[in-house]
Specification:
Two copies of one chain form a homodimer. Chain A is an alpha+beta fold. The first copy, chain A, contains five helices and five strands. The model of chain A has no long low-confidence stretch (mean pLDDT about 90). Strand 5 of chain A pairs antiparallel with strand 5 of chain B. Chain B binds a DNA duplex through helix 2 and helix 4.
Chain lengths: ~150, ~150
DNA sequence: CTTCCTGCAAATCGTTTGCATCAGT
DNA sequence: ACTGATGCAAACGATTTGCAGGAAG
């Protein structure tokens, strides 16, 4: 299902970095392993509560941040400024095609920076951001949730 | 100074839309007319207090939102999720080259969507986001603020 | 058994809203 | 004068922090 890490890989990274493997963290890893798109902290919290009804929001936040810092998760601020997370793919540079409805995300390798663009000014280029937004096939067929 | 609207244009748009021209709004228009880069609500507030020490944050927010809805300002969530505003250029499609230090912004016309890209899936493409981040010439020469 | 992790509660930050007063037209 | 705009304060949502008890190693 996931193009990024599987649960074992994620847990291995945690162990390697000296973090304990708690049930909550195991569950969180599973959530992201089974998910192609982006999840908000609340999404994660909601999925966590299925297995751990007493989980707290701050634990979710703490672990999301921790997993991001370890590189297991990719952090992302959407167009509307909302924070989202997703299992990260560190293997190669790519960009995202994101469904504005269900937020399912596909990656593609085309990168505009590889073209010979003429940029104004004499900026020292550091990085870039390129995302394409649309509606995935599934959401085009299914009635809109709105 | 500004590549976008001048003060007169902005005030004209406000009048045309039936909004009153208050001194605070005039000042806000001036701030954006004299500014090439992005400003956070706090930046705007700080500049406003120079002329109107008793201006309130909510007035700044209200007017920023109003000016965005009118299309006079361009709203933007930066990489770190922070909300910023900038005098908008509605005349043509373009993208931005942004200084990560001073946030001075240049526009350029190259658009990756005009290339014949092969995108995965069968998404119905709606829009896109492309920004290049770097350090402007000025900030390269001047000692870093950090 | 020690240290780290968790859950609770409270603090914090950025932004929005209700309301009485004030100013633009 | 009439109506919309302002400033204050308080509400609000998302995220962070301090602390005591509980679980992983």
């Amino acid at each position: 299902m996931s193009e990024s890490h599987n649960v074992q890989d994620m847990l291995a990274v945690m162990s390697r970095n000296g973090w304990r493997i708690t049930d909550q963290r195991r569950t969180m890893a599973q959530i992201f392993a089974n998910q192609d798109g982006y999840l908000s902290p609340k999404d994660v919290y909601d999925q966590m509560t299925v297995k751990y009804p007493s989980v707290s929001f701050d634990t979710v936040y703490r672990n999301l941040r921790m997993l991001s810092e370890m590189g297991v998760l990719e952090q992302f601020y959407f167009m509307d400024g909302g924070l989202k997370f997703k299992g990260s793919c560190l293997s190669h540079h790519h960009h995202h095609l994101i469904c504005v409805n269900c937020e399912k995300t596909l990656t593609f390798d085309y990168c505009p920076m590889e073209q010979q663009m003429v940029l104004p000014g004499k900026y020292k280029i550091l990085n870039h951001r390129f995302e394409v937004y649309g509606i995935c096939e599934e959401c085009q067929n299914n009635p809109p949730t709105t």
